[in-house]
């Protein structure tokens, strides 16, 4: 799953640790989300959407199937 988390985070001047603190997750979780190694749970996706004032679909995009 593709996402815009790094773009949104850096636009606010936040480090991965800063975003992790806002979400109450580890910095490693933020890194895994940003690199696409981890897909967020639905509650975490909603938390991210609220934090950045965006819809979930504006942050996360499904990869096209081949």
UniProtKB/TrEMBL annotation:
GO molecular-function terms, A-Z: DNA binding
InterPro entries: Cro/C1-type_HTH, Lambda_DNA-bd_dom_sf
Claim: ATP-binding is one of the keywords in the record: no
Transmembrane region(s): none
Family matches, as SMART domains: HTH_XRE
HTH cro/C1-type domain segment(s): 5-59
Keywords: DNA-binding
Name assigned to this protein: Cro/Cl family transcriptional regulator
